[in-house]
Amino acid sequence: xxxxxxxxxxxxxxxxxxxxxxxxxxxxxxxxxxxxxxxxxxxxxxxxxxxxxxxxxxxxxxxxxxxxxxxxxxxxxxxxxxxxxxxxxxxxxxxxxxxxxxxxxxxxxxxxxxxxxxxxxxxxxxxxxxxxxxxxxxxxxxxxxxxxxxxxxxxxxxxxxxxxxxxxxxxxxxxxxxxxxxxxxxxxxxxxxxxxxxxxxxxxxxxxxxxxxxxxxxxxxxxxxxxxxxxxxxxxxxxxxxxxxxxxxxxxxxxxxxxxxxxxxxxxxxxxxxxxxxxxxxxxxxxxxxxxxxxxxxxxxxxxxxxxxxxxxxxxxxxxxxxxxxxxxxxxxxxxxxxxxxxxxxxxxxxxxxxxxxxxxxxxxxxxxxxxxxxxxxxxxxxxxxxxxxxxxxxxxxxxxxxxxxxxxxxxxxxxxxxxxxxxxxxxxxxxxxxxxxxxxxxxxxxxxxxxxxxxxxx
Length: 459
Fold this sequence. Notes:
The chain is mainly beta. Helices cover 13% and strands 47% of the residues.
């Protein structure tokens, strides 16, 4: 820009000289002194004008440079954010969700919890990017009257095909467990999740090819009980976890199968300490091992899984088996090891009545609830069925008692969801669970029937 002004100055001076010079003539007299003075004044005036313009332009350039270096602030569907001027080097985002729930049980002596209102999840989320390639997430939970650190991890994504994640996060295993609590079709997760491992501390290598056509995870964790989470470890053994999930028809023109995905997850490790108890969808314990039972060796899990979304129709299914080596500790020694193979499965289907697309990541309504405009948001209806089987040998060998623990569970669920807008969701759910044994004298545990409603704010 300065060079341009120098060129303008030179041109102006040359033009002034040319205009001030008289026509060439061999006999032309020497210009009088007053004409030379006028010429000098004109040149000085031009220099001052150009200098003033140059200073003004430099001031504008400095202002623009300062503005360009300022961070950007904003808010939108993904929460509140602050980011660097280049929109990629540094970014921090504030979001979260709150779920207020009511649980109401039909009378029955298998239920130990009262009818109640509760804050099921209260989860503020802070996540962002540092130095362009390092992502982070921190998510505590203040629900149910406790404070728990659910997620706290770093993820390096120099390549989308080979990312490294370290910290506390969900083991890459169950397909419904991996869904965000804000995106669930049902208020509570289904039967298999009492076996599926939850959050653990470890390191994971993972990648995403062609926007989800193929996703894989290879991880090492401390290891957790069935359905459990942990913030530490009690032994030197670790769990190795692997999962692969493909959407083979994602990029095809075959619309009915474009939203179909299928995967397989597995884990292998060493378990110690007391084994887990199993709970119903209504969060009531229906199976526990004897108090002197300990895990004593290898534990493995496997889970084939799928989902299928076609327009407003959604389907999700999974089967899981957890195999754990157990031992009874007694004063005079221990019993021989027993391998307990417990399994569970579920299938859930949903349909968005207002025509929006079903999705593994939740429904986004086309319109918001504004009665004055005649718009009501989106409505969804869903149903599911699931079963859990405990290994019969557990009861034959004295590792558990049929008079206090059921060996089989069957659960039905119906759900209605109202998406008032993309931030508000109101859910209504009814679940009924039947048991095989588990009551006094070996009778069947009474049926558990529970109605739940939940209002969610998610931003």
